[in-house]
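Re: Re: ligand-bound prediction request (bumping)

Still looking for help on this. To restate: I need the protein modeled with pyridoxal-5'-phosphate bound, output as structure tokens. Inputs repeated here so nobody has to scroll up.
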Amino acid sequence: MSIASNIQYIKAQLPGNVRLVCVSKFHPVEALQEAYNAGQRVFGESKVQEMDEKHEALPKDIEWHFIGHLQSNKIKYIVPYVTLIHGVDSKKLLIEINKQAEKIGRKVNCLLQVYIAQEETKFGFLSEEVLSMFESNTLEELPYVSVCGLMGMASNTDDSGQIKKEFRTLKNLFDKIKANYPSVPGSFKELSMGMSADYAFAVDEGSSLVRIGSAIFGSRLY
Ligand SMILES: *Cc1c(COP(=O)(O)O)cnc(C)c1O
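Reply:
Sorry for the wait, this slipped through. Here it is.
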């Protein structure tokens, strides 16, 4: 199957309100160009230098989403152009993004990564920590950060009941925030959940952004 037909196949399964983030990490510029030629405009990368290089090399109407674990000292490289940072997993990182964004006068869109999996290895806030940030107006003190929603990764398991339960937990938290904090802006509307193996479940549970790599490009060569 070609990259174009894989994208077409996936998009045909997504409801109109769900957007595809084409996860292109570790794949060469040529592969991204092929996806671009098939109409794809949203790409997800997990390494700052790699995203910078691809951003330089490819057409300028691409939306670049950073989906990896962002290190504080590298924020400055991506704030000028990144469309959405999916995996913000600490208050310290939010503060640092705000600082770098203020320097160039550009408001940066972020998602708070919430820990929903059973595994110990996944990064993220606990649900209670997210709620307490909204409770304490922490985000209002960070005018150069726009928190546009939540992101989460389900456990890597064959137990579909478990996966659905984890996505549902994230959706419930998202709904709770919208319902309980009237100060939450209208831009708080994205729920980034679902990857190649589990995006169908994520869509069923209310995802608005699916992050799909291997189902488009095949497996990655690290
Ligand atoms: C790599 C990655 C993906 C894509 O994974 P696939 O299984 O290849 O679809 C999605 N989200 C994050 C955070 C990733 O790091």
